[in-house]
Amino acid sequence: MGEGILSTEITNVSTILSQKGLCDDTGPLQKVIGELKKSQSYNLQRLEIKIDKVPNNTRPSNIKLLKAILTVQISENICSDTQIQNPVNSCNFSVELSGKNEKGDTVHSNWHLDFDNSDTNEYIHPAFHLTYGGNVMKNTELGNVLLLPTPRIPYPPMDAILGIDFVLSNFIKKDVYNKIKVNSQYMAAVKRSQQRLWRPYMLALAKHWCDFKNCSHYVLDNSFCKKLHPTIVD
């Protein structure tokens, strides 16, 4: 994992979040930095990121304050650049959205990225998949909302840095996010995490259709990658 480099990158991202006024308490990230000095795993608990503007079409429509709460518990496997295999040993990832309506009542929403390498499930489970709902929603008054544990949307694994980027790219206005994204320290941190976790995921899928020794005959639209995943760093 390169704990020293990762510690530095998490420190840099933590500083950027503070400077941009998106995080009042970076203590959870500081705890992660301490954990990385002892092991190749860490447990980021409830990092709160402010959402500057409630997204259009949010329901209920009277939400005034909104924040994202990120939790990432991850242990990575050590892989070389030439190994295309699962880069994650264990992972527990969730993004809880918490808001206040005009009356001061709290409302919740939650996405979690599951890692499931078991073959004993009753339904199809991609190894890494985004699912809406989860434990956060169990005691929430739902009104007429229907929550199901499906669909399980295949999605590449995420660590703390990619989790922060997931929150910012989805819930912070594009002009604000783009200014953060071009910060050289932020870009380097995201790029390195994508290299460790997303590269083997994407290449494993590509290998299903393309033998790596025999791909020169394909005609590639170089812009297609960024259209599919706009947050990929060059």
Q: Helix fraction? A: 25-40%
Count of distinct strands: 6
Strand order of the largest sheet: 1-2-3-4-5-6
Strand percent estimate: 15-25%
Mean pLDDT: 89
The structural domain count equals 1
Distance between the termini: 20 Å
Unreliable stretches (pLDDT < 50, length at least 5) are: none
Output the radius of gyration: 19 Å
Shape: globular
Number of helices: 6
Order of helices and strands: HHEEEEEEHHHH
Kindly name the structural category. alpha+beta
Largest sheet, in brief, is:
6 strands, antiparallel
Overall description:
The chain has 234 residues and is α+β, with helices and mostly antiparallel strands. It has one domain (3-228). 33% of the residues lie in helices and 24% in strands. The chain contains six helices and six strands. Helix 1 packs across helix 5 (184-209). It starts with a helix and ends in a 6-residue tail after the last helix. 25% of the residues are buried. The mean pLDDT is 89.
